[in-house]
Amino acid sequence: MHALDVATIGVPADATPALLGFTMAGHIVGRAVPTATAETAA
Questions:
Q1: Superkingdom, according to UniProt (predicted)?
Q2: Structural domain spans, the chain
Q3: Are 31 and 1 in contact (CB under 8 A)?
Q4: pLDDT band with cut points at 50, 70 and 90 for residue 19
């Protein structure tokens, strides 16, 4: 996940992942990686 400093970056829905990444690069203010955890009954 990425946190951006703008609400929209103006990339069309059919844009390539490369274009999206290039356009986002200048607006990233934070990144996160979700991690799933679970507990099992003993």
A1: Bacteria
A2: 2-31
A3: yes
A4: very high
